[in-house]
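Deviation from plan, reported transparently: zinc ion complex.
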Amino acid sequence: MSILDNRETLAKQIWQVAEVAGYLWQKGWAERNGGNITVNITEYVDDGMRKMEAISEARPIGTVLPHLKGCWFYCKGTQRRMRDLARAPMDNGSIIRITDDCAHYEIVADNPIAPTSELPSHLAVHDYLLGKGSPYRASLHTHPIELVAMSHNPKYLEKDVLTKLLWSMIPETKAFAPRGLGIVPYMMPSSKELADATIKAINEDYDVVMWEKHGVFAVDTDIMAAFDQVDVLNKSANIYMCARSMGFEPDGMTDAAMQELTDVFKLPK
Ligand code: 13P
Ligand code: ZN
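Because the crystal trials were delayed, the predicted structure below was used instead.
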């Protein structure tokens, strides 16, 4: 028995997470247990689910997140592999709900699999998004090779240097990652400081944020859209590195070409 049985719309969301998990593995961005995904599934919760007993004790989130009152999430399990999640999402992740004090969560289904160690960042970001009325419901943390490599050079960590370079590699990048790439300096994985710095960067109006020498954190309406934003940015990083490995610095699109694209696609400046 699974909570997904006879819940088609909820199952569709969870299987979309599984599909993305498979892409992350195929791309080489998900070594071992690397990366994590959470999706706010509250809109798919029915009365039957609301009556279910929790299968874990209430565990502290570590902070109080008032906008998460009554919210439910699917979370990748900590130490679980994306390549396993791709085949069996409910054996490598679990469904949790936030308790009424907004300071704890409990696991509801299918198995008592502890959520990702990056839960503080994920839940704090979901709380922030709901607070500002955003339609975004999914967050993704992954380790894209080329973007992480570029984050080892301090010149790319200055505000919007990398954004501008990546946008100029191929027109689609600005069209499909129109808010660019925010930068968060290196901080301890799973820490509250990292969660706070991630929100600060998202608040500056980035959908994708680089965690220096670690990975990226992306938000969007659903998990496929969040993946797509990371994918287009990393593609540009890869094009840049291909040009460099052929022995030249790529020209990049001209400022005039970028401006035309921005006007035609009605993109943010
Ligand atoms: P989890 O296995 O706890 O999700 O951690 C993976 C990771 O990438 C931490 O940054
Ligand atoms: Zn990580």
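DSSP finds ten helices and nine strands in the chain. We consider this an acceptable substitute for the interim report.
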